[in-house]
Design a protein that fits this description.
This protein is mainly beta. Helices cover 0% and strands 52% of the residues. It is built from no helices and 11 strands. The strands form 2 sheets. Strands 2, 4, 5, 6, 9, 10 and 11 form a 7-stranded mixed sheet that branches. A 4-stranded antiparallel sheet has the order 1-3-8-7, with no helix packed on it. β7 and β8 form a beta hairpin. The N and C termini lie far apart (40 Å). The model has no long low-confidence stretch (mean pLDDT 94).
Length: 115
């Protein structure tokens, strides 16, 4: 079973930066997509950014130009560099991995953007 462990959340001022990291273990050869979602209080979980098979990346319109995914195959990690953070980026961020028959989630890490 694929397992995901996140780290790197915290409190940051508007305009600041944070880097989230997700370590993926288990049968990762079955994973065809991995990335990050987020869920703000009272809202549905939404896609932030994802890397698909072949290396194609998709980003939510709200984070384009500010957030960047990076995958390290040797370390089995997928990181999310978040720059120019805004209060509306405040949410619990979840690492996500998808196989042909399952979807896996990390435990979530809180990101709070506040002055």
């Amino acid at each position: 079973q694929v397992q995901l462990v996140e780290s790197g959340g915290g409190l940051v001022h508007p305009g600041g930066s944070l880097r989230l990291s997700c370590v993926i273990s288990g049968p990762i050869f079955r994973v065809y997509a991995m990335g990050w979602y987020r869920q703000a209080p009272g809202k549905q979980r939404e896609l932030v950014a994802i890397i698909l098979g072949g290396g194609r990346e998709n980003y939510a319109d709200s984070v384009k130009g500010r957030f960047t995914l990076s995958r390290d195959v040797a370390k089995n990690t997928v990181d999310l560099q978040m720059n120019s953070l805004k209060p509306e980026d405040t949410a619990v961020y979840y690492c996500n991995a998808q196989t042909s028959d399952s979807t896996y989630w990390g435990q979530g890490t809180q990101v709070t953007v506040s002055s």
